[in-house]
Amino acid sequence: MFGFKTTRAKGEEGEARALQHLEQQGLRLVARNYRVGGGPGRPGGEIDLILRDRQGVLVFVEVRQRRSNQQGGAAASIDAAKRRRLVRAAQTYLLNVHPLPRCRFDVVAIDGEQIEWLQAAFDAG
Prior knowledge:
Keywords: Endonuclease, Hydrolase, Nuclease. This protein is α+β, with helices and mostly antiparallel strands. It has helices at residues 7-24, 80-94, and strands at 28-36, 45-52, 58-66, 103-111, 114-122. The protein contains two helices and five strands. The chain is globular and about 45 Å long.
């Protein structure tokens, strides 16, 4: 309708681009949009993509998309609070994974048409 896309539709489009890019690099999709509740007074968390790399590492991926890289770009928009929510969601996810695999947190930053995969962008500590 008039070329208007909702924020959710734009997010899904960005995640699809990121997933395609990561699959081309040999990663396999495990789960998409894994959500956990936050509890009283705490926001919940969501992991956009969970994949496995060729070495079996479980990769939790945050996808960030911006129209351009002005004001720091997509990757710069992931603040400490967002990282804490991602780590909490990953910890919850891992409660049902046995044996525990090696894990890492990656970011796929999409600035306009440019896509950048930042491996091990941050850690759980």
